[in-house]
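sorry for the late reply, my laptop died twice this morning and i had to redo everyting from scratch. anyway the thing you sent over, i finally got around to it. pasting the sequence first so we're on the same page, its 361 residues, then the predicted structure underneath. double check i copied it right bc i was rushing
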Amino acid sequence: MQYSVKLLVAALLALSPAAHPALREFALAQVAQSPAFSLPETVPSGTTLSIQSSPNLGFAAEALKQEFEAAYEGTEVGVEVTNSDEAIAALIDGDVDLAAIGRPLTEEEQAQGLNTVALERAKIAIIVGPDNPFEGNLTFAQFAAMFRGEITDWSEVGGEPGPIRFVDRPADSDTRRSLSQYEVFTSAPFEAGPNTETVAEDDTADVIQALNDDGIGYAIAPHVIDQPAVAIVPMHQTLPDDPRYPYSQPRYFVYSGEPSPAVAAFLGYATSPEGLAAFTAAQVAEVGDVAEGVTAPADPVAEDTPAAAPADAEADPEAVAPVPDETAPVVADNDGGFAWWWLLLPLAALGGLAWLLGRGR
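ok and here's the structure:
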């Protein structure tokens, strides 16, 4: 895939202090890493590595491949995009060295000696189309009931009368499976109702285009923040850029058993500041890719901005959903002490610039 100058500019702007706070947090806030892997000084020429990735991490895996090969001459990394289940199966069978997935491991997968290295945790936004008249707020129970087809009319959640169409993702979607881990969804079978339209591919642009004025769906928050083709629905009067916002999705590299020297070297690079630069550029480019894949409304109006919680309303501290058990610790919020990762901004920008220009040639 070729990246345009527009995506390059978007990547650099997202890293600037003027960027939208949620997008900047997405670009910078990796999950705190354990010291298990360190950045290698050298990697033997001829080292090879194979990765299968879900679509959720395809951009990142390709970016890290490019930068790793450039940093260590004579190395070769193969990346194939499939889905999380196929990637994990290939890893268990010994057909690949690493899997890149956007969901927690199951107990059965953990029992087979698989280990995760956390990259980040991104919020999951609830979205409607810009022409949808609903301007309210949803509870966890209401959204889950919409998913199951138990709430089928907007008037049941305080909106104007009209049928609700739930726009879902394929069963193997990492984002969908991350939602399924939350208690509000585990209390009943995780099955969509009869008022559901499922997009063919796990693609946020496809979800957005399917919303129209009656649909509701979900997406990784940074993919839809500031997108004119969607409005974000508050959950318990919080939006995804609020630390209290409930739903999120982890992203991992997964290896089996004891890591080989090639796996250890790649993971050491992926979790280093140099790897952060490549990861950041890839994630911001992914945001731009979603924007390019969406046909924005011809005449956007003021009401097209994401629905916000009332200024005098406070989020219910009792209502914020707990993160599923398999959760890596997240780097502290910007308001809590010195944000040391800002020191990585020049490196991230230069790394992103080099990678994007290299991909464009």
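DSSP finds 13 helices and nine strands in the chain.
thats about all i looked at so far, will dig more tmrw
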